């Protein structure tokens, strides 16, 4: 057991399984009291089950740690407030939030329904805002606090059939960046992690082609436990890091780039369509971002 989070209180959303469970166990092993939040939903967000959150609490307690279960949804303003209230009511304070709860409703963009769009945005983007916002009142008053938000290379790089999920996950990157700026004056930090981990979420990736099958076999080697130490570091008082995006894949940790101008061209008197076609685009084209998916960019096996 470490002690980097001794006397700290950490909320981990969606912690009944997968990455959230691994993060909650690590936080507790580092000495934190943990609110294990999970509605116990199916992968597509349907249903609820108090079992997963409670069973992770039991695991933490069996290992000598301190935790309490909460089964409220991150996706509502009031229910998110009650997740944060559980931390304050049970442990007297809140020091960190890990926005990890998530669902997937994959569909090609051109057939995606309103419900598939809204439900994914609700849990990821609205949920991350609601829980963060509820905690911000405590963080501001005590002039300390830290956020970790789980984003995805689906948004950062690209993936097929995840318009809802990618939009939500890039939205979370924007949310994190602005939280970091707005709350810097209160000593509050905010960072993102784009995890690679074998979980029921990655198990939903289609395996229709040999390439997809091969990809999934590699994904199985990426243990959720490998992501947890970075999450623990980022919320711990030893860290001064804020406004960054990391990725973790087995034993690799990546620092991801963030959008900045890559090239600029000036034209006296402004641009017209012809000049854009003839001068601007040929000048910029060598710097265009190719239409790639994550596996094109991170093409090597997990190490
Ligand atoms: P998971 O499906 O095992 O865990 C997500 C948890 O969130 C579930 O236990 C579910 O019950 C809970 N949940 C769903 N809706 C909720 C709500 N409204 N309120 C509270 N809890 C809710 O998935 P996994 O893989 O552990 O994913 C965790 C996070 O990491 C997600 O945000 C996911 O998008 C992200 N991520 C995962 C990747 C991976 O490789 N596994 C890749 C990129 C991102």
UniProtKB/TrEMBL annotation:
Q: Pfam families in the record, alphabetically? A: adh_short
Q: What is this protein called?
A: NAD(P)-dependent dehydrogenase (Short-subunit alcohol dehydrogenase family)
Which PANTHER family does the protein's record reference?
Answer: BLL2957 PROTEIN, DEHYDROGENASES, SHORT CHAIN
Family classification = Belongs to the short-chain dehydrogenases/reductases (SDR) family.
Give the matching InterPro entries. KR_dom, NAD(P)-bd_dom_sf, Peroxisomal_Beta-Oxidation, Sc_DH/Rdtase_CS, SDR_fam
Q: Which SMART domains match?
A: PKS_KR
- The record places domain Ketoreductase at 8-204
């Amino acid at each position: 057991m470490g002690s980097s989070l001794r006397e700290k209180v950490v909320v981990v959303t969606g912690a009944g399984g997968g990455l959230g469970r691994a993060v909650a166990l690590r936080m507790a092993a580092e000495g934190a009291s943990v609110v294990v939040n999970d509605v116990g939903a199916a992968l597509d967000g349907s249903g609820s089950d108090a079992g997963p959150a409670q069973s992770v609490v039991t695991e933490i307690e069996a290992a000598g740690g301190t935790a309490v279960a909460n089964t409220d949804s991150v996706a509502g303003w009031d229910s998110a407030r009650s997740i944060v209230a559980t931390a304050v009511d049970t442990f007297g304070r809140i020091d960190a939030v890990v926005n990890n709860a998530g669902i997937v409703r994959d569909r090609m963009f051109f057939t995606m329904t309103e419900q598939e769009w809204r439900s994914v945005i609700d849990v990821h983007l609205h949920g991350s805002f609601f829980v963060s916002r509820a905690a911000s009142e405590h963080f501001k008053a005590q002039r300390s606090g830290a956020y970790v938000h789980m984003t995805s290379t689906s948004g950062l790089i690209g993936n097929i059939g995840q318009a809802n999920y990618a939009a939500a996950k890039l939205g979370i990157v924007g949310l994190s960046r602005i939280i970091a700026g707005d709350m810097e004056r209160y000593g509050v930090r905010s960072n993102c992690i784009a995890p690679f981990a074998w979980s029921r979420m990655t198990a939903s990736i289609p395996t229709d082609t040999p390439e997809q099958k091969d990809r999934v076999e590699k994904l199985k080697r990426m243990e959720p436990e490998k992501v947890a130490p970075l999450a623990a570091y980022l919320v711990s008082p030893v860290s001064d890091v804020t406004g960054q995006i990391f990725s973790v894949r087995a034993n690799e940790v990546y620092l991801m780039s963030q959008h900045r101008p890559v090239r600029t061209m000036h034209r006296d008197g402004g641009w017209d369509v012809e000049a854009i076609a003839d001068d601007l685009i040929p000048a910029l084209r060598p710097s265009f971002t190719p239409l790639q998916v994550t596996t094109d960019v991170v093409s090597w096996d997990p190490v």
